[in-house]
Model the fold of this input.
Amino acid sequence: MTEKRTIPHFHLEAERQGGSVSLSLYDAEAVSAVSPEWILVKMKGGEISIRGERLSVAVLENRRLSVRGMIRTLEVLYDPA
Amino acid sequence: MIRPDRWILGYRVFRVPQEEIARAATALLRAGLSANISPDGRFAVSSFRVRRTKEALGSLSYEISPLCGLPGFALALWHRPGALAACLVLLILALIGADRVWDVRIERDGEDPDFSSAALIGELESAGLSVGARWSRIDRDEVEASFLSSSPTVGWISITRTGTVAHVKIRKKTVYETEERPEGYANILAAEDCVIEEITVTRGYPVVSVGDTVRKGDLLISGILPAEAGGGFCRAEGSVLGRLHESVQANCARLHSEKEYGREEYRSISLEIFNFPINILKNSRNSDGNCVIIEETRVLSLPGGANLPFRLSLTRALPYRLTDPIPYSDEELVRIASSRLSSEVARRFAGADLLSIRVYGEFTADGYTMTAEAGILREVGQIAELTEN
Done:
């Protein structure tokens, strides 16, 4: 079963690929930190923090970023500015 | 996984330190370049985007691999004549192999013993399609036409090629038989001594009725019509069921011999490649006494089920000698005789209705005899042609 949620000011899409999840982040501005356990991405509306296992990042066209691996938690950090 | 276009056009692998992955990803993101960065910091870039990637990474520390993919492979081979020659030979062998039929697979409706794969493959070989034949010399339309004209059982055929495998779809010929009425005049006579149980006359004049006892050769339905039925001759037709008694006997001798097998030995081994047999071993030594000859053909198959055009044919001889006569026990005698009798009863009374059966047995000087006396209902009429006399 899939569940769709809307987060204001962010455009994220998740897709299940086998035993892991591929998370697409649109309009990414920069990648602040990358490690197999934690990825922090700066977006226009704030920051996205992704925690999990065996995480990897793929840079795609049109400022799209794809995070793959066993994603455990996703935190959306709004930037009030 | 490397994309196919990168394999064909060539690519280079960049490697950035793990602590620099975030900066490298940001740089690529801002430059509008795409890359799938592995956890250890490696990513592949098409050869025609290497310069832009280098500009985007700027002052970041990174390593870059030599050219990979097909162009890189070709470049590496260019400096190694031996490897280049080996690749060319492999390519030529692959091209030659691709032009051969490596397997013939037949798809047909159901299993029909008169329509076996072995027979069909033999007919296909006669028509020009066989394992080892060259695809470039096979005209499939011609093979289909030749096969259809020569095969008495096949009504439709379609040959398709999938790689080096010939898929043959076959449908059996539907024969609409027209019933031919035999000509001439005939009577129907009793084939056995019996009591008439049922008589159905399609043509002719019934001479007997239900309950009559007849002997073998008696007239049942006459082909000579009486005056009240219009007179004249005809071919008598009909069905006459008679009740009759038959007995079946099965014997089993008390003494029997058994086969004692010796050590088997290879008589011949031959390897067949594309229908060309190569004899590896031929042993023509005569064995003493009796022996069983076992012929075995081994076909080499690929995991997908395709057969390679190599066959190994083995012929083995298994010598045996007959032991001195051994007696059966009473229980064994009865069991064997019973088994023989039941199969004989099934054979003899096939097509007849069994009304009653009585079975008994007795030990004789030689062994055991079992008898079945049965009352059966069977078609007893047989045609007898009328002659001018």
About this structure: The two ends of chain A are 36 Å apart (CA to CA). Strands of chain A lie at 12-17, 20-25, 28-34, 38-43, 46-60, 64-78. Chain A touches chain B through 21 residues (CB under 8 Å).
